Amino acid sequence: MIFNYLRFCIIIFFSIVPYLMLGQVLEIDLPETNGMSSERLSNISTVFSDYVDDGKLPGVVVLAARNGKIVYHQAIGMCDIEQKTPMQKDNIFRIASQTKAIVSVGIMMLQEEGKILLSDTLSKYIPEFEHTNVALALSKQRKKGNMNVHRIVKAKRQIRIRDLMTHTSGIGYGYGPAKKKWEKAGIQGWYFAHRGEPILETVKRMAKLPMDAHPGERYVYGYSTDILGALIEVISGQPLNVFLKERIFDPLGMVDTHFYLPQTKASRLSVVYSQCDNKLLRAAEDGAPQFEWDDKEKCTGNNQTQGQYLNGPRVSFSGGAGLLSTSMDYAIFLQMMLNNGVYDGTRILSRKSVELMTDNHLDGDHYKDVKFPWDWGVGFGLGFSVTTDAGDRGVLGSLNEYGWGGAYHSSYWVDPNEKLVVVYFTQVTPIILDDHQKLRNLIYQSIVD
């Protein structure tokens, strides 16, 4: 009798656990309850306070969640150094390329609805891409380091949606062999907030310019996700900002994620700085990013506008780098991914779509000999980098961990093995600093279970 009763209880427990998980939301909890040490986590505050005190960073926000519980969420330093405004946990940041993951989820949602296939050609929806060209640097000139001398050839095949998701479309940021043509067209770099041209029109103009590589043959980081954003507009019939708000932000409760800020939130927008001669310079407010590492004459802080995200034309929704967000909003999005597509009872994606997005797609039979160029032991999925060999990568972490970062020196990762979400926001570009590596070590050394 007792055995039957216990069996009944076990059956009931395991039948309701999935529904309990569907209601899971990010809430503050003790680190010790979630296998982490409060004392060890306090090292994060110490190390990043030192960065701020030494003038290496203006201010940061770090959020770490394990088992769906927030075990560390701190704001350190200044949002505005000159005005002596402290950083707050709800400060709003330009997340740049962290936009890419959100737009990639939007594409997967459309596939789940039967509106597209990842194997579809881009030209099926944006006909301007039916015939594209590639600029190839001449081999002798390439050996000499001169990539600007090139020949233009027809692309071997059409660009597919999957190519855009994996950055194998061959489309860069306009600085490839044909960069003078891209410059003449006024399409270079990742910054779009100042443009008065809708993103779809900009993307259509891209189709006429020579790409950096043949589709499917090389990992080329660039406008692929901006093109996906335009594709969402075509398929959904909505501007990208409306689609993302109605389909992702509102359902998840991401109340502070925007392409352009409402004036009521302007005071929470963190100031951008640039690292120059080991000093932080406040960014100018009268132009788009201009800084280049090898151009000392531009070492003036004139690398970012504070005003465009507030008062810009508000018509160019960059799916590759245009969003603003908070640490909490972005953690919610990542927790949804960690929960296999569901958060607080709202399903955004199916488990199988999440699995496909967070698996490595490079260097297999489909993208043969295409490797991720910037790190060992890392591949790329559909919108995320993916750890394929933790030993080869050589840093603390886990196999199948996925993540990315942004041009303003932000970063994030999700570790399914440890049920861990980490969001790191600051606003400095350009910058060379070891803070990303230090944060990774500080997070993982805090795990004690």
Provide a short characterization of the protein structure.
With 449 residues, this protein is an alpha+beta fold.
Write up what this structure looks like.
The chain is α+β, with helices and mostly antiparallel strands. 31% of the residues lie in helices and 16% in strands. It folds into two domains: 26-98 and 250-444, Beta-lactamase; 102-238, Beta-lactamase, CATH 3.40.710.10. α2 runs antiparallel to α14 and α3 (99-112) crosses α8. The chain is globular, with a radius of gyration of 22 Å. It starts with a helix and ends in a 5-residue tail after the last helix. The relative contact order is 0.17.
CA(first)-CA(last) distance: 37 Å
CATH domain class name of the largest domain: Alpha Beta
Low-confidence parts: 8-21, 286-297, 300-305
Largest sheet: 9 strands, mixed
Give the integer mean of the pLDDT values: 91
Annotation keywords:
449 residues, alpha+beta, Beta-lactamase, 2 domains, 9-stranded mixed sheet, two-stranded antiparallel ribbon, 14 helices, 17 strands
